[in-house]
Specification:
Bound molecules: flavin-adenine dinucleotide, flavin mononucleotide, FE2/S2 (inorganic) cluster
Strand content of chain B: 25-35%
Number of helices of chain A: 9
Strand content of chain A: 15-25%
Oligomer: heterotetramer
Radius of gyration of chain B: 18 Å
Helix content of chain A: 25-40%
Order of helices and strands of chain A: EEEEEEHEHEHHEHEEEEEHEHEHH
Number of helices of chain B: 5
Distance between the termini of chain A: 23 Å
Order of helices and strands of chain B: EEEEEEHEEHEHEEHEHEEEE
Largest sheet of chain A: 8 strands, parallel, barrel
Number of strands of chain A: 16
Strand order of the largest sheet of chain B: 4-3-7-1-2-6-5
Number of strands of chain B: 16
Chain lengths: ~325, ~270, ~325, ~270
């Protein structure tokens, strides 16, 4: 009984897609997600990278890493599992060999990073601080690596630990730090609050959900590390819920939403739930220009619905109207 | 240069034994020149249940944008593709990866094929024949039974000698084709003939070919299949364990053709 | 490089599907899941209920409940959200009106139950104790209701609270209590251990994952209570992971697995991960006899793979064989 | 007694305006006798992306197991069904729910239809005509434009008077059909004619019809559509807010036809 507001459609060209993630201004709200766009170079063959609002790099650690044994990926219903093992070129090579290319593009470069332990996180933030003024817009701190061993789980699941880690990293860089949280927790608001209090410029929600798949012929897991991270449309409802929970509980905190976005309507759901911008991850594997398709669809869908700008709809969701009172006699 | 374009199923040809050749017509673009062993990522209108495209070796690619793949229903993606009707739309990315080197005119190329691993070797033979090198190409082709051995006429037409093997003996020699390969290598060793091996097929077959190649110290090239998501070096999903300074290379961007001695298999 | 064991197929009729969930014996490992089979009656039109190994009833509370406002359900990619609000007839009416029908069927009847607070849980267990000898085989205690308000979240997410609650219920009944856990936690093993220590006869894994979907036209949630529980194939990887974690960490604990099972192969994955039996939930909505289809497919797939009995494969998953050592020169 | 059976698309008839009639042939079983307003749950070979079947009012059902539904592409399920070709397989559960009562020969039945809400009223008119009650049946049928008004010939053939309304005035009177309905009720009130309302269509239309029915104190029956999963009273997803001792009834098992005064709408 909650009817759609019959709003007059508007001209798609007039839709204002600009958005702000905290102090950061973006031409539109759609970025490519970490680990799903490498360092951008491979995509240059298939699309005009300059049309992107921004991208998050593969997670960078202080030293290069080689990653996990295979198999590393498998598909599930409307999703996929991965356990890449955070393979990356390391902070030094990133700054020297990857950043110049990204800087040239003129898009918002988010450098996703992590460390194998507390000290390595701080070291990585310190190393990447050198990229300020060299093209890095945001440090996206990944505290949710299901695929590294060494006690990493606590960074993402214990608020006090996340708080201390965030504070320590914020202290060594003037770049804004957006903390990427894991959904594998009972209380996402508590986590978001902890990192916000520690000086995070915002949060990225969500990383993958830990999952498993089994090959019944071989009686082995389909992922060599046994468990992997679930991404794709399967997890979208969980991601939306967490974005909405955090946006509602912590209205001042900037949120970058992600998890299963493949269409403009998906992106719109995240924005309405409270995300200032979103990232497109797994969808890039089906088509490298997935983020651009999402932008085009978002513009068209907003025009259809008569929505003039992104800024007016961030977090606009209202509860369903209460039902009429019951006459019980 | 790889590109992404849209194509439609032109014909769906049943070869028996579950094997199907899908011919596509590109709607703008196309694969262009393809090296044998290169592949394309295909994705149909699969909605959200199946997210990722599937990799297929290119069977042939024509200048007008038409191309073909050979496949068999295996899991969810291939089952849908095998059932696809003329007119069905797919998104194509390719050609991707690095293929086989053409014959150098000195070494005899022994093509060792099994199952849906045939296309790279079929294309290699086609191109060799077109370049007048058919005489230095031989096919070793194995299957469970005669239905697994398809497109033999093409090899005959190109003048490629074909040695066949089936597990049930219904065509060619009985047993694995690697037995015939070994005999051939013994003979080459004896005569001092220079040979190299190019192979594509099920992993157990490739593992056997690799060991044989290493044992006979013959240059051996394996076209590998690893589970892929992106197909061009982005997701890092398709790792291949290798020897050398780095523990892994990538099937899609560094391969799919790897030298046997580089591959880190037991 | 992990090749399938080429096992000779066997005769489907010879496959032994019997299984034990703790002390409970079941003719086969496939039950219908709570909330997805009501009290069984409606299905009598469509299938022979006696062919089922067992079923879990809609969750029962001490008093009848009317449930949540609408909309209560919506579909997502390979899943659905629900917020039914645990509508049920109440313990008394269940015993008087529903149990006699179920008893007649001769299948294993699991009565799913909950309370609005601590005391109501214990009261419900006490009331249902009257059903011992009247056809109830198991009390399945649902401590994971995302859809009731009053602090219920702690029952399912804080190990000590779950422990106390389980102990209190175990104390008032001689029926075995299987505790159904929520996946909305960081540490499922800790939860399973807590209830096992308190005397639970086993655990059911998993209940739904809390999620959200948005109608971008109306700018409202698609579920009236804002959030709902995600079920279906989308969550299968998460469910399998939790079953495997608990089975590995607590080898003595009986596990009933569920989450996204729609085929015999799905069920086989759960069994190999460590579940002694499984429940089929959302799949019933597509076809009432879904559980029977799963049994038939399970038997056929086991025969194909040469597996003679369920008991030999419960928890049989082994890690992927290590890779060959690297020669680095 | 409802049952579950398999059926195949026999014909897919485009009525224009996006409306399609799908006729199915049952493979064993069938819906049998159907009361107007009863529905069936349909599910195609949709894999795992779309889990649940979709509800459709039965347009007609024949003794040989053939039956039809009228639909329009709306979301994911209807889009697939509208695109389905003859031969496509669906799983059918039905007939489900409780439909409209036939005319009692005393009260004139005013059928108020909009969009894909036509089938229950179409079937009601068909059955009334067959029973010789066509004279006590009138149709009030509204749409956005003339393309929204389909199957009018049938009503004409059955001798059912039809009052049409379109928002753009392209057929019948301009505006909502509820305006015409109100006029008709005023007239009936004046003449003392006994009437009742049977309605099915978009929720805003049903809400208006409900208010009119209550205001004129005319027995009013609404055929409701709520999101469904199971279709037969198991999932408790399709709650309908009602007045009376319980706050909710179920669209699938208690309805889909409800009396207007029972429905707890604003
Ligand atoms: C470079 C390259 C070239 C290729 N060329 C060809 C080609 O020319 N022709 C061709 O046919 N294929 C080719 N393949 C393989 C093809 O991509 C796979 O068949 C495909 O990825 C499997 O996709 P699917 O959707 O059918 O299976 P999916 O449903 O995606 O399943 C894939 C995974 O599930 C498992 N799986 C699937 N089905 C089963 C089953 N029945 N039993 C047990 N496990 C199962 C497998 O272990 C695998 O990990 C190529 C692959 C690569 C990497
Ligand atoms: C008793 C009954 C009888 C029915 N009879 C008929 C009939 O005879 N003919 C007929 O055509 N339909 C009928 N329906 C409706 C039909 O079942 C729905 O159209 C169908 O459930 C919607 O399914 P879908 O897969 O197309 O949409 P889905 O993809 O399942 O989407 C359904 C949900 O998504 C939302 N949604 C879907 N598409 C959009 C969109 N484009 N924009 C915004 N929101 C969207 C809706 O709010 C809805 O909640 C009936 C329903 C019931 C309950
Ligand atoms: C193959 C793969 C690799 C990923 N690598 C990273 C990473 O290095 N750092 C990170 O923070 N997230 C990583 N992610 C998580 C994504 O950035 C994203 O949070 C998640 O996949 C959900 O979005 P999606 O459903 O759109 O993919 C990775 C995801 C995938 C699928
Ligand atoms: C509509 C619906 C109602 C449910 N009601 C209950 C319930 O009353 N008690 C309970 O423990 N679980 C309930 N569940 C959860 C299921 O029993 C099951 O744990 C979950 O749906 C995962 O399994 P599935 O993916 O096979 O559906 C409900 C699920 C659905 C979809
Ligand atoms: S498939 Fe993505 S890196 Fe190879
Ligand atoms: S649709 Fe399941 S109860 Fe009505």
């Amino acid at each position: 009984m909650t009817a759609a507001p019959r709003t007059a459609a508007i001209d798609p060209a007039s839709v204002d897609l600009r958005t702000r993630m905290g102090a950061l201004e973006l031409g539109d709200p759609i970025l490519a997600a970490s680990g799903c766009f490498a360092y951008g170079q491979q995509f240059a063959d298939f699309m005009d990278l300059r049309r992107l609002a921004g991208l998050s790099t593969k997670g960078i650690s202080p030293k290069p890493r080689f990653g996990n044994p295979l198999p590393r990926i498998c598909e599930t219903a409307s999703g996929m599992l991965n356990s890449i093992g955070l393979e990356n070129v390391g902070a030094e090579a990133f700054l020297a060999e990857k950043l110049p290319f990204l800087r040239e593009l003129g898009v918002s470069v988010w450098v996703n990073f992590f460390g194998e332990d507390f000290a390595a996180y701080v070291e990585c933030a310190r190393l990447l601080e050198a990229g300020r003024g060299q093209g890095i817009a945001v440090l996206e701190m990944n505290i949710s690596c299901p695929n590294i061993k060494k006690g990493g789980i606590e960074f993402g699941t214990v608020p006090e630990v996340a708080h201390r880690l965030t504070r320590a990293c914020v202290d060594v860089t003037d770049l804004p730090i957006v903390v990427k949280l894991t959904p594998n927790v009972a209380d996402i608001v508590g986590m978001a609050d902890a990192v916000a209090q520690a000086g995070a410029a915002g949060v990225s929600l969500i990383n993958t959900i830990t999952g498993m798949a089994i090959d019944v012929r071989t009686r082995r897991p389909r992922i060599a590390t046994m468990y992997g991270g679930l991404s794709g449309p399967a997890i979208k409802p969980v991601a939306l819920r967490m974005v909405h929970q955090v946006a509602t509980a912590l209205p001042g905190l900037a949120i970058c939403g992600m998890g299963g976005i493949v269409s403009g309507e998906d992106a719109l759901e995240f924005i309405m739930a409270g995300a200032s911008c979103v990232q497109v991850g797994t969808a890039n594997f089906a088509r490298p220009d997935a983020a651009l398709v999402v932008v085009d669809e978002l513009r068209a869908r907003m025009a259809e619905l008569g929505i003039a700008s992104v800024s007016e709809i961030v977090g606009c969701i209202r509860p369903i109207a209460p039902e009429a009172p019951q006459v019980t006699e | 240069m790889p590109s992404q374009f849209s194509a439609r199923v032109d014909t769906n040809r049943d070869l028996g034994g579950g094997y199907v050749v899908l011919e596509f017509a590109a709607e703008g673009g196309g694969l262009g020149d393809v090296v044998a062993g290169q592949f394309a990522m295909l994705r149909g209108d699969w909605g959200r249940e199946l997210l990722n495209p599937r990799a297929f070796s290119v069977l042939w690619s024509a200048p007008d944008g038409r191309f073909a793949v050979l496949l068999k229903a295996y899991g969810r993606g291939t089952t849908r593709l095998v059932a696809s009707q003329p007119g069905a739309r797919v998104t194509v990315t390719g050609p991707l990866g690095h293929g086989f080197a053409p014959p150098d005119g000195v070494r005899t190329q022994l093509l060792v094929a099994g199952g849906v691993g045939l296309p790279p070797l079929h294309l290699q033979a086609r191109q060799s024949a077109a370049r007048g090198h058919a005489g230095v190409t031989e096919l070793y082709y194995g299957g469970r039974n005669r239905d697994d051995l398809v497109m033999l006429d093409d090899f005959a037409a190109w003048g490629v000698r074909a040695v066949l093997a089936t597990e049930d003996g219904s065509a060619g020699i009985r047993g694995f084709v690697t037995a015939a390969l070994e005999e051939r290598l013994v003979e080459a060793q004896r005569s001092g003939e220079q040979v190299e091996i190019l192979s594509c097929g099920p992993t157990p077959m490739l593992a056997a070919v690799r060991k044989i190649g290493l044992r006979f110290e013959v240059p051996t090239w394996l076209c590998l299949e690893e589970e892929m998501a992106c197909g061009f070096g982005v997701c890092l999903g398709c790792a291949v364990p290798v020897h050398g300074p780095r523990p892994y290379l990538y099937c899609c961007s560094d391969g799919p053709v790897f030298e046997a001695k580089q591959v880190r298999w037991p």
